[in-house]
């Protein structure tokens, strides 16, 4: 590297949960930087606390640049710290652009007869949703405005898309078969 040339930026992944992505706000991190010792000029590793502002709905791959917070090269100053947003996998939800997708298990009877169901939300709660007719394995229910915030349009959110896994009984008696046949003809 030439004298006076810029120091190489310090690039690190910033892995966020879907809850953190949805909420946005401030995230406190501890980073390890290499800084020149004021006496000897040798590089030493230093732990440093950094507060990062997250826009609600921030997207995977977004690069957050913190000027002068990277490593230092003697005589050249500090590089920038570049945090690259990564989304952690979630056990129940998947992000698709601004929408959240989840799958709900329903017993067959409820899939055929329920007027409403409780749908899980990313925050850990549930939302009552009215049903219009029977639910099939191909049904996708859209709940407008309950997905991820749209970073470019504050106040707007994507949808919550609910897919269904229909649970069939493990056994059906002859009498139940007869009743089902009569009811569904």
TrEMBL record:
Membrane-spanning intervals of the chain: none
InterPro entries on file: DnaJ_C, DnaJ_subfamily_B, HSP40/DnaJ_pept-bd
Keyword Chaperone on entry: yes
Pfam families in the cross-refs: DnaJ_C
Taxonomic lineage from the root: Eukaryota, Viridiplantae, Chlorophyta, core chlorophytes, Trebouxiophyceae
Originating species: Coccomyxa subellipsoidea (strain C-169) (Green microalga)
Domain Chaperone DnaJ C-terminal, first and last residues per copy: 11-169
Assigned GO CC terms: cytosol
Protein name: HSP40/DnaJ peptide-binding protein
GO biological process, one term: protein folding
Gene Ontology MF, one: unfolded protein binding
The keyword Chaperone is assigned to this record: yes
Keyword list, A-Z: Chaperone
């Amino acid at each position: 590297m030439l004298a006076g040339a810029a120091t190489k930026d310090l690039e690190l992944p910033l892995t966020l949960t879907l809850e953190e992505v949805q909420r946005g706000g401030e995230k406190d991190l501890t980073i390890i930087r290499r800084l020149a010792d004021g006496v000897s000029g040798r590089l030493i590793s230093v732990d440093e606390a950094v507060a990062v502002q997250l826009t609600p709905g921030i997207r995977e791959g977004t690069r957050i640049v913190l000027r002068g917070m990277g490593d230092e090269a003697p005589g050249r100053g500090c590089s920038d710290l570049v945090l690259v947003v990564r989304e952690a996998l979630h056990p129940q939800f998947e992000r698709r652009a601004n929408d959240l997708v989840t799958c709900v298990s329903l017993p067959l009877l409820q899939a055929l007869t329920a007027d409403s169901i409780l749908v899980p939300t990313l925050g850990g709660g549930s939302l009552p949703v009215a049903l219009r007719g029977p639910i099939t394995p191909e049904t996708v229910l859209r709940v407008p405005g309950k997905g991820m915030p749209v970073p470019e349009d504050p106040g707007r959110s994507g949808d919550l898309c609910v897919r269904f896994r229909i649970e069939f009984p493990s056994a059906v008696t002859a009498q139940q078969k007869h009743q089902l046949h009569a009811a569904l003809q």
